[in-house]
Amino acid sequence: xxxxxxxxxxxxxxxxxxxxxxxxxxxxxxxxxxxxxxxxxxxxxxxxxxxxxxxxxxxxxxxxxxxxxxxxxxxxxxxxxxxxxxxxx
Length: 89
Known about the structure:
The chain is mainly alpha-helical. Helices cover 57% and strands 0% of the residues. Helix 1 crosses helix 2 (31-44). The termini are far apart.
């Protein structure tokens, strides 16, 4: 996957910087890469887990009788129900 990178600046306390510096040295990577990885995991979640969760929903409603006639279902969704909701019909 190709990411467009944007530059940012972070202020880290000594304890966090030392921990990141030691971990980066141990893993043979950069502090920036560790921060990107941690932010991605925290705020985007695990991509594989998200994919599995989405795939688990594929076809979940396939046996629902409301969807037997998909054209009728979509037509009903597009129909204006405002007059019915207002009790005018």
